[in-house]
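Let's practice the habit of predicting before peeking. Look at the sequence and jot down your guess about where helices and strands might fall. Then scroll down.
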Amino acid sequence: MRIGLYPGTFDPITLGHIDIIRRASALVDRLVIGVAINRDKGPLFTLEDRVAMIEAECAKLSAQTGTEIVAHPFENLLIDCAQDVCAQVIVRGLRAVADFEYEFQMVGMNRALNDSVETVFLMAEARHQAIASKLVKEIARLGGDVSKFVTPAVNTALQKRFG
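Done guessing? Here is the structure:
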């Protein structure tokens, strides 16, 4: 069984994330969405909220693709999380060239820690490449319309937070 790990904070999950999840589903039999517990970032949504949003959105994708998709909170090193969930591959989304430099460094460090786990980069569709959770939250906080960037359920959750 091919197992992939797609890590992030998903605060909140966006259409860009969902696009990467859909594409990654074609590459693996089981896709674990690693929901990072990053207290330093001070997430808008609780871990429980983020996991629930991911599970709700990914249930549809799982049914469509036939790939098992599960949410898995983690607070340890990414490479250790990959080992914990028996992932052979880490999936990372790239939006722009600026992402690549940071991701390239991460791959090098992860390979030094465990060279049996590969990293695969997927580009989101062009219409989703500019979407970043941080920007979505800022637009929502300032009363802007984020419906082009998130699902209706996530949009509702953002409106409740900032409404």
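How did you do? The longest helix spans residues 47-65.
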